[in-house]
Amino acid sequence: MKFTASLIGLAAMAQTASAHYMFNTLITGSQRSSAAVRQAQNNSPVMPVTSLDMRCNTNPSPASATVTVNAGDTVGFSLSAAVFHEGPLSIYLGQAPGQAANWDGSGANWFKIAEWGATFNRFGFTPLGKSQFTTTIPRNTPSGQYLVRAEQIALHVLPPEFYVGCAQINVVNGGSGNPSKVAIPGHISPSDPGLNVDIYALPPPTSYRVPGPAVWRG
């Protein structure tokens, strides 16, 4: 019986690990780079929303590259595995005060450039089952070095889990935009309704707002 229980425990651990994922490859235009990503130590989620690890995960390895990309080009991530848990996903840019490689993500320097939310003709979230997310760097984004950050909120448990990752980019041929910026953590309140929704409720939710600031489109 003990042997059987051990096998069940190991199987449960393996299933839990397989349900996790990392943002481990940066996409810029037609290029892909893992060297520009601050690689997470493992695929475990970050908690709570007030943790400093919300910036770029828990003690990620330093990136060895910073990729140059034009304002107006594609940016995003591919994941180590498809999104397994229901919940929204957002992409942020953080304007580094100098070299992106030297910045820890502190300060009110972050703004959101994309988000993927809920659907209601059968309630669910559009990121589920996908392993790549890209958007466009707004053309009016000022030139300079940035951290590009992905954040997926997994709502299968409450309080939720967060899957986050960062990569280093150098934006060129930018504009003169001045988006409102937020600090991370601090960009989402623990009491935000989008963090506390019961996705299993009956009847299901009929509205949902992705937590965090509004998307800046430049």
How is this structure best described in words?
The chain has one helix at 2-18, and strands spanning 23-28, 31-33, 37-38, 67-70, 74-79, 89-95, 110-116, 118-119, 124-125, 132-136, 144-154, 161-172. The chain has 218 residues and is mainly beta. Strands 3, 4, 6, 7, 11 and 12 form a six-stranded mixed sheet that branches. A four-stranded antiparallel sheet has the order 2-1-5-10, with no helix packed on it. Strands 8-9 form a two-stranded antiparallel ribbon. The chain is globular and about 50 Å long. Mean pLDDT is 93; it is low at 1-17.
State the share of residues found in helices, binned by percent. Answer: under 10%
Structure annotation, total helices: 1
Rough shape?
Answer: globular
Low-pLDDT segments: 1-17
End-to-end separation: 62 Å
Condensed summary:
By secondary structure, the chain is mostly beta strands. Helices cover about 10% and strands about 30% of the residues. β8 (about 120) and β9 form a beta hairpin.
